[in-house]
Amino acid sequence: MDLTVVLAGLIVGFVVGLTGMGGGALMTPVLVLFFGITPLAAVSSDLVAAAVMKPVGSWVHMRHGTIHWGLVRWLMVGSVPSAFAGVLVLRSLGDSADVQAVVRTSLGIALLVAASAMVYKAYLTLVARAHKEAAQARGEVVEAPPEGPIVVRPLPTVLIGAAGGLIVGMTSVGSGSLIIIALLALYPALTANRLVGTDLVQAVPLVASAALGHVLFGDFQFDLTASLLLGSVPGVYAGAHLSARAPGWLIRRALAIVLLVSGLKLLNVPTVQLGIVLVLTVALGPLLWASVRRRESQRAVSWPESVMSG
Questions:
Q1: Considering its fold, how many domains does the chain have in total?
Q2: pTM metric for this prediction
Q3: Alpha-carbon separation of residue 24 from 16, 53, 259, 306 (angstroms)
Q4: In a domain, 197, yes or no
Q5: CA–CA separation, 16 vs 26, rounded Å?
Q6: Of 163, 240, 174, 160, whose CA–CA distance to 207 is shortest?
Q7: Deepest in the core among 133, 175, 209, 249, taking most CB within 10 A?
Q8: 309 part of a folded domain
Q9: Phi-psi region of 36 (alpha: psi -120 to 50; beta: other; left: phi over 0)
Q10: Whole-angstrom Cα distance, residue 61 to residue 163?
Q11: Does a structural domain hold residue 104?
């Protein structure tokens, strides 16, 4: 048992418990970049570990009733078979260096998409907050609108599940960060707690299917997975208990930067260029975000006037 892997699992598990995201998107590149684990072995072991951890958070949401079971069912129709199929696609390619390169490249692209999805989700939250603050400044009473019935759209929901499942089966990334953004775009009326609960529950059979495929046909390593679980399970527990008091916004921003840098590194971006991207992101990111916040605040204030004049 590798104690450094246990420590890595503890840290990643803590981040997942604190922010609700970053499991496969963070653990797999950590195993590849810092521990020299082959991409296929990292994906296999991370998925099996995730299959053990996912039901814990799902049980909490089931107890609170924050799950849209209709969406879960249609997502499963697409995600469960496609997650298993993703493993079979890798197996059909063989276990050569070329396959490892394909997995590494796919993982890098998935991380960049996940980082972009996190930024987009944060932007949507910023816009909603700006409109709420503008309404309050005008003396309006702002109340959370009651959630109306969600009309399930079977075909696009199945396609979201299928696309997400395929990505998860091949890279271990996407069961949370990617699918939740797609659901948000397709069902904007879904409240935040039901969005998270629905995504978390649908991820259980999705990850289980991908994990089964990797146990049977992937490069599953029991010792590596055991080390991950030994650290990540208490990490998730501790992070979840501290989530109400810790600066989650800071963790999420740091996570987005880590995903960006990890994705570029997996795509073989040279170290010098990678350092330049990191410096520019850290230095200019807050300034650009502050500019976006000011712009959205101004638009929210002028929005009633534009509606009236229109």
A1: 1
A2: 0.70
A3: 10, 12, 11, 44
A4: yes
A5: 9
A6: 174
A7: 175
A8: no
A9: left
A10: 24
A11: yes
